[in-house]
């Protein structure tokens, strides 16, 4: 093989054929021998990526250190090189143009394999670099010194290197100084990485804070503003009103009608879907400057800003109600719903947002009371009414312990003979200031507050005690006592135990106690109601369905309920002698009961004509002012004595 002598260093080149043999398949010079890839290469490459420095713009802090290295070592070339998987990329450089080079032909690929400064005093005499293209071609590198940039985990990210076109060496002082500059480069890389981490951490914290803030002020299910954010915006609206006297806004308090029925019949998942659908419906009916919020459960509130008059608010309610005429398709089901809405405007000098919201809530409650699926605008009369109810509620809490409750007794008569067969116990409230208060004015409050439970048991105990006293006073009588069970009382798990205990305390035989339950309570949960009714039946009490025909009972259920008697509501009886349809309804109800072997009481009898009609229909029992209004104990005893004397 022919060889060509080059210079006194004994370096030689092969002929053209030998030279071509040094090229790889991509026409690049091969290192002789090839550089070994360390076992920790994957960790090193991954660590380099964490610094996020590759392909970034020049930075003065690095350029200054590169210049300092060149100055200390008195070399025309210096660089901070970072060794990527397949390339050497230069974060900073002096003395050449290239931004990156293939890794397999760089000097730094060797430098990162050791922990110390690598010095190549003459590249032509080192077999690792003698055929390197940077040596045999431009820029003809003859000297290289590189300090590995080792991170805190002991991984070499790259090098700080100095290069020259002439063979040379570095003094001990230069080597020491170059190592110190390399440490500064690594410090800058760490600072840069930590700054990135800090910025990311700050950004992440801000994002987390935004999420927390959003969650603190928004409902998670519907993503609407919650009560806290709504009240904050309402407070701002009140402040604006103080600056602008003519500024008008309104609060709408919204409650879904019969939402509990959706939850109970279709499940909570469909209930949640309905709430989300309602939220989107409400949003679509508002302007961007208005606010709709969810307060929890099925309650929503809307703040309407900058109105001309109350008709603007009513118009919004109309748009919402129009949209709700269409069904929601949820989980394969078509669900219809309606809303009750209370409207309160800032026409009163409100000081607190809570007061305005309270009045909107009051108007909503009024809308529900008047039949649901409607709206009511708050007025001062409503406020007075609410205050009265609140005072009644507070007084009712203490009515039992203060012995303010009274029982009046209305006779139940066997229509064929006119003989009294029993009494219905009706509670009255002897208020110390307002006088006698009838059930229609306080029972609903008692139901809402839960006071109905102790009140109901007091009535039951007192009625049983009184009937037992009459049995002892009039041994020849077989009177019964009828007592109403309220909705909440009927749902008490210990109801049977409580009644059994009262019967034992008063000494009354259970067959003389008649328990009246409204059909609406039973139909709310027929399965559970059936279980409770059977337990009461086992106790020995008679069961009466009260106000039959006014609720939404299904006749298919009636034969399953163990009732002994149906009470036909007074609304049918009162119109029976003037309305042929009502007479036919009463006839049908009596016939139905007879076919089911169930007795009937007609309540609300007031005229002799009604009595004659009911006798003709073979109605067994009656109750009403025709016989007697509800009376106290003494008058009831007189009626009992009179009835007994008539039957003798």
Explain this structure.
The strands form five sheets. Strands 16-17-19-20-21-22-23-24 form an eight-stranded mixed beta barrel, surrounded by four helices. It has a six-stranded antiparallel beta sheet with strand order 5-4-3-8-7-6. Strands 10-11-9-14-15 form a five-stranded mixed beta sheet, sandwiched between helices. Helix 3 runs antiparallel to helix 6 (172-217). The chain has 648 residues and is of the alpha/beta class. It folds into three domains: 24-196, Beta-Lactamase (2-Layer Sandwich), CATH 3.30.450.40; 227-378, 2-Layer Sandwich (Alpha-Beta Plaits), CATH 3.30.70.270; 400-647, Alpha-Beta Barrel (TIM Barrel), CATH 3.20.20.450. A hairpin with a 3-residue loop joins strand 3 (77-83) and strand 4 (87-94). It has 23 helices and 24 strands. Helix content is 45%, strand content 21%.
| CATH class term of the largest domain | Alpha Beta
Query: What level of helicity do the residues show?
Result: 40-55%
The total of helices stands at: 23
- The CATH level-2 architecture of the largest domain is identified as Alpha-Beta Barrel
Task: Tell me the distance between the termini.
Answer: 152 Å
Total strands: the figure is: 24
Q: Radius of gyration over alpha carbons?
A: 47 Å
- Largest sheet: spatial strand order: 16-17-19-20-21-22-23-24
Q: Mean pLDDT across all residues, rounded? A: 86
**Going by CATH, what is the homologous superfamily of the largest domain?**
EAL domain
Name the shape in a single word.
Answer: elongated
- Largest sheet features: 8 strands, mixed, barrel
CATH topology of the largest domain: TIM Barrel
Number of domains: 3
Uncertain stretches: 1-36
């Amino acid at each position: 093989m022919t060889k060509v002598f080059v210079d006194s260093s004994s370096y030689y080149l092969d002929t053209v054929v030998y030279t071509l043999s040094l090229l790889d398949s991509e026409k690049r010079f091969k290192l002789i021998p090839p550089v070994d890839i360390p076992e920790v290469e994957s960790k090193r490459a991954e660590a380099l990526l964490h610094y996020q420095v590759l392909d970034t713009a020049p930075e003065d802090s690095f350029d200054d250190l590169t210049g300092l290295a060149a100055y200390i070592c008195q070399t025309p070339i210096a660089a901070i090189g970072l060794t990527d998987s397949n390339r050497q990329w230069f974060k900073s450089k002096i003395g050449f143009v290239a931004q990156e080079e293939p890794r397999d032909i760089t000097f730094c690929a060797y430098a990162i394999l050791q922990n110390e400064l690598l010095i190549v005093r003459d590249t032509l005499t080192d077999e690792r670099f003698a055929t390197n293209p940077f040596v045999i071609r431009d820029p003809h590198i003859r000297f290289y010194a590189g300090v590995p940039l080792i991170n805190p985990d002991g991984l070499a990210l790259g090098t700080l290197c100095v290069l020259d076109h002439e063979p040379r060496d570095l003094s001990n002082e230069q080597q020491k100084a170059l190592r110190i500059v390399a440490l500064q480069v690594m410090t800058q890389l760490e600072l840069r990485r930590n700054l990135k981490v800090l910025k990311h951490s700050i950004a992440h914290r801000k994002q987390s804070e935004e999420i927390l803030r959003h969650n603190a002020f928004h409902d998670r299910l519907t993503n609407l503003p919650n009560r806290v954010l709504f009240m904050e915006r309402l407070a701002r609206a009140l402040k604006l009103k103080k600056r602008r006297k003519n500024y008008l806004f309104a609060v709408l308090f919204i409650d879904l009608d019969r939402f509990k029925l959706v939850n109970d019949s279709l499940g909570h998942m469909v209930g949640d879907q309905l709430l989300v659908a309602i939220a989107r419906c409400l949003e679509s009916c508002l302007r961007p400057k208005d606010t709709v919020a969810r307060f929890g459960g099925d309650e929503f509130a809307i703040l309407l800003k900058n109105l001309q008059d109350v008709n603007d608010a009513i118009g919004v309610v109309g748009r919402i109600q129009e949209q709700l005429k269409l069904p929601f398709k949820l989980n394969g089901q078509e669900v219809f719903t309606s809303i009750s809405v209370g409207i309160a405007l800032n026409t009163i000098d409100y000081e607190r947002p809570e007061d305005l919201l309270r009045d909107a809530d009051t108007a909503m409650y009024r809308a529900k009371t008047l039949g649901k699926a409607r709206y009511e605008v708050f007025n001062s009369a409503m406020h007075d009414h609410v205050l009265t109810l609140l005072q009644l509620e507070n007084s009712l809490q203490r009515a039992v312990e203060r012995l303010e409750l009274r029982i009046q007794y209305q006779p139940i008569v066997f229509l064929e003979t006119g003989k009294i067969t029993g009494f219905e116990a009706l509670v009255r409230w002897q208020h110390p200031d307002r006088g006698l208060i009838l059930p229609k004015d306080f029972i609903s409050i008692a139901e809402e507050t839960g006071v109905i439970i102790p009140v109901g048991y007091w009535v039951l105990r007192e009625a049983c005690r009184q009937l037992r006293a009459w049995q002892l006073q009039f041994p020849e009588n077989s009177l019964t006592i009828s007592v109403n069970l309220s909705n909440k009382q009927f749902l008490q798990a210990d109801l049977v135990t409580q009644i059994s205990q009262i019967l034992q305390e008063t000494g009354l035989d259970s067959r003389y106690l008649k328990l009246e339950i409204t059909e609406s309570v039973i139909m709310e949960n027929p399965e559970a109601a059936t279980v409770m009714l059977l337990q009461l039946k086992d106790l020995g009490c008679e069961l009466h369905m009260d106000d039959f025909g006014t609720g939404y009972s299904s006749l298919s259920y009636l034969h399953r309920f163990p009732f002994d008697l149906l009470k036909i509501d007074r609304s049918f009886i009162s119109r029976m002698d003037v309305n042929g349809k009502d007479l036919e309804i009463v006839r049908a109800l009596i016939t139905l009961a007879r076919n089911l072997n169930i007795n009937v009481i007609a309540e609300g009898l007031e005229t002799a004509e009604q009595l004659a009609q009911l006798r003709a229909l073979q109605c067994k029992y009656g109750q009403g002012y025709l016989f007697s209004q509800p009376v106290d104990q003494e008058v009831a005893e007189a009626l009992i004595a009179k009835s007994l004397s008539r039957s003798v």
